Amino acid sequence: MDKIVIEGGVPLRGTVAASGAKNAALPVVAAALLADGDHVVRNVPDLADVRTLGRLLAHMGCAVERGADALAVRVPGDVKPEAPYDLVRTMRASVLVLGPLLARWGRARVSLPGGCAIGARPIDQHLKGLEALGAEIRLEHGYVEARVPGGRLSGATFTFDKETVTGTENVMMAAALADGRTVLENCAREPEVGDLAAALARMGARIEGAGTHEIRVDGVASLRPLDHRVIPDRIEAGTFLVAGALPGNDVAVTGCVPSHLEALAEKLRAAGASVTRTADGLRAAGRGRPRPVDVKTAPFPGFPTDMQAQMMVLLSLASGTSKVTETVFENRFMHVLELQRLGADISVDGRVALVRGVAGLSGAPVMASDLRASAALLLAGLAASGTTEVRRVYHLDRGYEHIERKLAPLGARIRRERA
Ligand code: EPZ
Questions:
Q1: Atom of ligand 1 nearest to the CA of 235
Q2: Which positions ≥6 away from 51 have C-beta within 8 Å?
Q3: What is the pLDDT of residues 88-123, one digit of tens each?
Q4: Fewer CB under 10 Å: which end of the chain, C or N?
Q5: Rounded to two decimals, what is the model's pTM?
Q6: 167 CB less than 6 Å from ligand 1?
Q7: Distance CA 339, CA 342 (A)
Q8: Which helix or strand (DSSP H or E) is residue 171 part of?
């Protein structure tokens, strides 16, 4: 198993380009199932999660080919509408095939994803939304067994009990081919939902309101293959901006969308960093020791849960105590114990972490527990004096494209080793 070794305490300066967004690419690639033929999805990052979805589509009978930055997917007239446990287990986003399979073929068998390191993560809202459109769903032997009597879903009004990103995406995809109008309320407003709606529109879907709480879909009888370029990864970009905001650093991220990163930029500024717009992105520079800042995660446009762990690294070096509240997932403080091994002073009580800033961190071997926790450990290792070894980097590889190759030109002393 690979590990990443960092000699920390070296200033980071320079420019790094944002990759395509994992969490936009996954639903857009799943949306290909909505139409037969040859699809092209561009700006797709080369990541373990994208490869897992490719394997899942291949398992169903699609041909998937990776080009330089694009994924070509050929969807046949009939597929095996099944997502087996082994593929869903390694990537929860596999559940995104459920809506398209039901809409296109009227049946699906998708493994229940189960819990994961950041919490229980149920999919009840996906299932309720699909039931509202007429699907009959049974849970059997760990699988969602779903079918549509009569073969075609029907438009309906449905209110999500809770804002869910992939839930909104799943039901919106299903509604695109349903008979009649669907109105979805309390939808997630993340930019990735908007990007999926844009991709579906290119396929001929009629969707309004993506990016707001109410999405209206007028179902069409069929869709055409898609050719779509996914948006830049705001969480990868945000991770580099936190790196830039660390004391002594100065990092510009090109190709990111500033309006997707406002909540983070505001907190970085409150912590004393300079965050400025550049011609094609954002630049963050750390000016001395960060100031303490309270952070509470929330659905978009709030502060992203996917940036909470990285922000905590910056706050762990602040000149006072910050309160970090996680409202989206119940168990997303797994990085705290590892950050303590690097000398951070953090205590957790339920969903609240108190981060008492320390003057410096010191390198140590640490273990990654999930994707964003790994990114936080990497940032902490870059800021710490001495050597940090981050183990279990397969978590990192699920969501960050060649991160060591992107950080090295900024001056980071970072390398990957076979453990
Ligand atoms: C998406 O996960 C992202 N994944 C996550 O990215 C991200 O952390 C999360 O949204 C929140 O922004 C993808 O886009 C592939 P949710 P998702 O459904 O859709 C509860 C990363 O690091 N809920 O919006 O699975 C749920 O338990 C990751 O890239 C229900 O109760 O998240 C959570 O508390 C990890 N029932 C809250 O809603 C449901 O049916 C929000 O989850 C669905 C969700």
A1: 29
A2: none
A3: 888 899 999 999 999 999 999 999 886 667 666 799
A4: N
A5: 0.97
A6: yes
A7: 5
A8: helix 165-176
